[in-house]
Specification:
100 residues, alpha+beta, Spore Coat Polysaccharide Biosynthesis Protein SpsA, Chain A, 3-stranded antiparallel β-sheet, 3 strands, 37% helix
Length: 100
């Protein structure tokens, strides 16, 4: 699988990786999952896509009913400008970006 460097020179968290994916990969939807996350369901992406379509939102994340697990998410290419703006304002929290 291809590996891309972050689009910004100094690593400041997962949002930089999300933005880099948008810069380098074709497609409309992107799924992000930390590499050390165990026990992911086989139907994770279809479930997230179903939720995004149902809620008509460009980004959805996994929740356990109490906590949002923001780094496990599905986001649409249309998020590119909001992601860039959020990051250039030196905001780096995935959960904050998802709920903004």
């Amino acid at each position: 699988y291809p590996v891309f460097s972050d689009s910004w020179p100094d690593f400041r968290g997962p949002l930089a990786g999300f933005y880099s994916a948008l810069q380098h990969c074709p497609g409309d939807w992107f799924c992000a999952v930390p590499c050390d996350t165990p026990f992911l369901p086989d139907d994770l992406v279809p479930r997230l896509m179903k939720q995004a379509n149902h809620d008509r939102v460009p980004v959805v994340s996994v929740t356990d009913g109490q906590h949002l697990h923001g780094t496990i998410c599905l986001f649409h290419r249309s998020c590119e400008s909001s992601l860039r703006d959020f990051y250039t304002q030196e905001k780096y929290r995935v959960r904050e970006w998802i709920t903004s």
